Amino acid sequence: MKRLVILGGGESGIGTAILGKQKGYEVFVSDKGNIAEKYKKVLIQKRIDFEENQHTENKIFNADVVMKSPGIPDKVKLIQELISKGIKVISEIEFASEYTEAIIIGITGSNGKTTTTMLTHHILKKAGLNIGVGGNIGDSFAQQVAEKSYDGYVLELSSFQLDGIENFRPHIAIITNITPDHLDRYEYDFEKYIASKFRITKNQTKEDFLIYDADDEVINNWIKKNPIKAKLVPFSIEKKLEYGAFLKGDKIITRLNTEEYIMSISKLTLQGKHNTKNAMASTLASQLLKVRNQTIAESLSDFEGAEHRLEKVLKVNGVEYINDSKATNVNATFYALECMDNPTIWIVGGVDKGNDYSDLMPLVREKVKAIVCLGLDNQKIIETFQNVVDIIVETAGAEEAVKVAHKIAQKGDAVLLSPACASFDLFENYEDRGRKFKEAVRNI
C-alpha cells in the first residue's frame, strides 16, 4: 500500500486526505500547528492517522508521496530533506487532477484571479454546466474530486499551488496579470515568480488554450522568449486585436474563429478597467466552451462580486465605506484607488512583502485626503507619503482605524480599506481583517 503524507491540516490537506484514503493510500496528516476542530472531526470520522503541533520525521520520511500545503515554503529544511531523499513533493492540485477526467479551467495572476474565477463559474453554471469551483477559494478541489461528480472545474491557482505540479494540465488556462508579489517566497527574484505563474501552461498541448492580458508587458515578454504549445487567446483594453477580446469605445468585442460578439461595458455589474479585463477573460473562456452569448451577457450583468474585493459596506452620514481587504499587494490597491471618485480616506498597512509604494503616488496625490495606517510597522508608508498627504494616523486594529477614519471623513468622502499588505500581523487572514472592518463600520 502506498503511503501518502500530508503536511498541513487545512482545507487542501484534509481534502487530499479524504481523496487519498478513497484511492487506497495509507494516509498520514502532520501539522506543525493546531488542526482546526472541524478538520479534526473529519479525520477521526474517516479514521485517518494525524498529528498536530509537531512533525515526526520517521513518520514522514517513509512516504511514497508528500502533499504539502501551499503555505509551506519550499526552502523549509523538512521539504529540502524530502526532495534530497528523492521523495516526490506535490500540491493538492497535482494530486487531485490525476483522479478526474473533468475539463479544467485554471486561473492564475497576481490580481483579479478570484473575481475571474467566480465570474467564470457564475457564467458556466448559468449556462447549465455541471461545474465545480475550487483551488485557492471555496471547498478543496481534492475533496470535490472524491465526493462530487462534476464535468468541469474552475480553479483559482496561486503560484505556490503551481510550484507543486508535474502533470497538471488545464484545458483552458488564464493569466490575468503578473506584478511583483510574494517575492519573499521567490528569493526576491521577480523572474522566478513569473516562471512560477507560467507553470500553468507547461503541460498544455495545441488542443488547449492560454487566455492572457496582452497589455501586460511581463506576460508578453515571457511569451516571446518561451515556446508555448497552447493556442494563445489575448485580451486587451489598449489595442485592437484580430483574435481574442478588445475594447472599442465602450464596447467589448470578442473574436474567436469567424464570429464577432459585442457587449457594452455599461452592462457590467463590476466597474473599473481591471474588471473589464476580468470580464473579457471570463467571456473568452465561456465562449471556448460554447456557452451562448445571451447567457454570458446576462451573467455579466447580474454577477455579485467577491467578498472583500471593493465591497461596498455601508453609507454612514453620507460617507461610503468600502472593504477591499483582499488587496494584499500594491497593484491591487492601485486598482482600488483608480476606481475612487470621491475624496478618500485610505486605510493601509500590514505585513509588507517588499512593497514599492511609489507606483501609487499619482493616485494618492489626486484622490487621498488622509491615510490611516493599520499595521505594526508603518514606517515605509509614512516615509513615502508624508509630503503628499497632510493627515497620517497610526492605529492598531480595525475598530480604531474605522473610528479615526469616521472622525476625519466629511459628507461625500469615501473610506477605503485597501491595505496593499498581508494581514498576519494583526489578523488571521485578509477575510478576518475584512470582517472586522465591516463589523466596526456597522458599529459606528
From TrEMBL:
Keywords: ATP-binding, Cell cycle, Cell division, Cell shape, Cell wall biogenesis/degradation, Cytoplasm, Ligase, Nucleotide-binding, Peptidoglycan synthesis. Pathway: Cell wall biogenesis; peptidoglycan biosynthesis. The keyword Cell cycle applies. Residues 308-421 form the Mur ligase C-terminal domain. The keyword Nucleus does not apply. It is an enzyme of class 6 (ligase). Residues 107-285 form the Mur ligase central domain. One of its GO terms (biological process) is cell division. Its main location: cytoplasm. It catalyses: UDP-N-acetyl-alpha-D-muramoyl-L-alanine + D-glutamate + ATP = UDP-N-acetyl-alpha-D-muramoyl-L-alanyl-D-glutamate + ADP + phosphate + H(+). One of its GO terms (molecular function) is ATP binding. GO terms for cellular component: cytoplasm. Its EC number is 6.3.2.9. ATP binds at residues 109-115. It is found in: Cytoplasm. Pfam families: Mur_ligase_C (PF02875), Mur_ligase_M (PF08245), MurD_N (PF21377). Belongs to the MurCDEF family. Cell wall formation. Catalyzes the addition of glutamate to the nucleotide precursor UDP-N-acetylmuramoyl-L-alanine (UMA). This is UDP-N-acetylmuramoylalanine--D-glutamate ligase.
